[in-house]
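sanity check this chain:
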Amino acid sequence: YSQCWCWNSSWTQEPAKDEKSEETKEASIAMDGEQFKSDAQTALELITDYHSSLPEVRVLSDVQPGYLRRLLPSEAPTQGEALADVMADVKKYIVPGVTHWQSPNFFGYYPGNISYASILGEMISNSLGVVGLSWISSPAATELEAIVMDWLGKMLKLPEQFLFYDSSGSLTGGGGIIESTVCQSTFYSLLAARHRAVAQLKKKFPETSDHELVSKMVAYTSDQAHFSASKGSNLAMITMRSIPSDEIACMRGDALEAAVQEDLAKGLFPVFVMATLGTTATCAFDNLTEIGPIAEREGMWLHVDSAYAGSAFVCAEFRHWMKDLHYADSFCFNPHKNLLTHFDCCCLWLKSQVEFTAPFGHNPASFMPSQRLCPELVADYRVSFHDKYYCTAVLVYAILNHDNTHYCPYSRGLGPGTAHNSETSIFQITHIRWNPPP
């Protein structure tokens, strides 16, 4: 039990047992606006105190497995408590079991530094309580998402094919969508690749069943790629081949070409290749200049995963890694890795909205009156099994407006309230940078 306390004294004060505040004794089930304001202030103070304490707090919790079940009741309480008492329980029981990702001393997994703007944006997003399953269900949710995705795309200098609108103000047929994780983005891209490939192969083999065609499909990725590639291929029922990387952990064109030719000789159908710009293990970069033409020649869907290092592309000095990104059909990166956005926020851009939505049978016209559907003004492509139940775009909008100056040069902050306190950028500290492959 004594192991459950944080190291900072401000977070180790144990409230007296069985002593609850007068507010709890008179707590009502309903919370009105005035009570919410008061309780929100209490919660905000806890949040700011927590982040202020992080430099002195031990990063890795030293609690033992099962510690929390021994401390909390086995059943939910039958009587409400004042928020002050709930917050005291959070400090007493929950925080001691937290691994402090926002600490300036945290160097595990990947940089996941958030900002106060991110926290406030999330509060606003959740308070709106919208169900963004189509444009008409909440017009701002759809339109704001399209706008901020174009903002982000322009900040990264993505090819215009990935934006909703090009420099002339015309719709490109592409665009971006906010997903939760890279796993979703990879899986959805695999499904889109499979659907496109079936349509193409049906022209050559009209008598062959879809199931038989899919059984002969092959996808490719580096042996350094994120596990989402194999997970997604299993769900999509497509064989995934792991391509050996070279001495600097890079997937090269010759290795991919050899695998593709081998499978073609077996009568298989290469349909998908996932290249990585910044692998999670070593931040290695695959060679798009060599991979792209192979994917284009064979009609393979090229998905580029830059979840780990993509945030760095807001800086011009890192954009050479994006050379020949125009070959890609889809591209994703995670703002919750180094762009002051909390988990989970994965931005996925597509070259073709039509090809991406085709597998899901989603028809926006079935959700809204035809006179309200204006594709020339609003691009809306929700997949049928992943509707947006809150307005994530508000979160991104808040960050881009408030914290934009922290992005260029690359964010040097180490969490809320500590921006620009480090002389070395997070990217330089936590990422391995290879020389560009020949």
